[in-house]
Amino acid sequence: MYPKLSLYIDGQFKSGEGRREQDVVNPATDEVIGRLPHATPADLDEALAAAQRAFESWRKTSPLERSKLLRKVAALARERAPDIGHGITLDQGKPLAEAVAEVNVCAEHAEWHAEECRRIYGRVIPARLDGVRQLVLREPIGVCAAFSPWNFPFNQALRKVTAALGAGCTIVIKGPEDAPSAVVALAQLFHDAGLPSGCLNVVWGVPHEVSEHLIKSPIVRKISFTGSVPVGKQLAALAGSLMKRCTMELGGHAPVIVCDDADIEAAADLLVPFKFRNAGQVCISPTRFYVQEGAYDRFVARFLAKLEGVKVGDGLAPDTRMGPLAQARRVTAVASFVEDAQQRGASILAGGGPLPGAGNFFSPTLIADLPEDSRLMTEEPFGPVAGLLRFKTLDEVLKRANSLPFGLAAYAFTGGTRNAHALAGGLQAGLVSINHFGLALAETPFGGIKDSGYGSEGGAETFDGYLNTKFVTQMS
Fold this sequence. Notes:
By secondary structure, this protein is α/β, with parallel strands linked by helices. The protein folds into 2 domains: 7-250 and 452-475, 3-Layer(aba) Sandwich (Aldehyde Dehydrogenase, Chain A, domain 1); 254-442, Aldehyde Dehydrogenase, Chain A, domain 2. Helices cover 38% and strands 21% of the residues.
């Protein structure tokens, strides 16, 4: 059964009740599985007013109280992970095991924020004059507006909500209309954990209409957005014109560098499932594969052999390793990258197109011998397509890897300490992982540079965007 969908405003779940609604479609079957109510302008104003009222009291709560609530949310998330994951698979498409894992991992994020919110420290600055006391205080910024994506609907929403609430802020969040069940479930978790009314509000609607309404409101003091670079730039420009602080986690086009001295078979074995998880619809997914000449043939052979084990199908089937793309428009978009590569003389080593039948299924695809200016090597495909090129020297490949305006994630495999140091220092990305995949953990910061955004979620940096710094100097 697919869960009932609703808004969540001022502690109340609100269904259609005459509001505009949109269909929610299962991407594996093309069947309509639910109806999602859109917020009216009055609903948005009610959510903002509720968040403002709640902020006046929530900002004064003890960090211990906030911590206790976040821990309860973590426990409830683990209990309900199978049901929440089932809903994610139905509306987003990823395999059930991935969906349930997403929820369980998020329980760790809730616990991390529960611990860190007890450690939001100020400091005392020694004064120059006797009788003067100088304090630096960290205070919650106010009401936050957040916009979370469809590829990790529970994870991305929970990161924003726990950071805002842990800092003492309140929040209005617009989740993904294509995959809404996880955010409704998230609201239910906080509701059942005893969060005071108005601290969390969930709204839905036409994205640009909702974002403009919320960002322009004088009530909102902070914006957090995860999504594409073009949309992120538009929202950042609007927020900047109003002097509102932002956290922007935008798109990437992650390079992966495989050196001759790496464990080639182990690298390929790790990269195949990582590349094709969630059908490649991951902002930190490796998409530009640079393999040193001496290792190239071995790497390709192992990669293709491993790729044969990626079973594509309905995410509810137990043997599925890759589900459908989340929307029909993504099939067309991904196919256009393959068509461009073919027109430019590239070699399709595996896959190459949509799969027949119902659903948004696309075959896992590996393309070699691409021109550097092809679309696949310059634009984020956000799908199950990887581009493969050779390189000779480390200096050369670093220039190629850093040539794009993106700077979210980068990966490298090498057996040499000197190479590892050169790669760690030379790759221009907010996240660099060498010889394994160690990103997006609760205790580590997550964020990009250049066009991939600014600000961090997770780690000790997680509350920075939700706090004002106040300096107080007092003479006795």
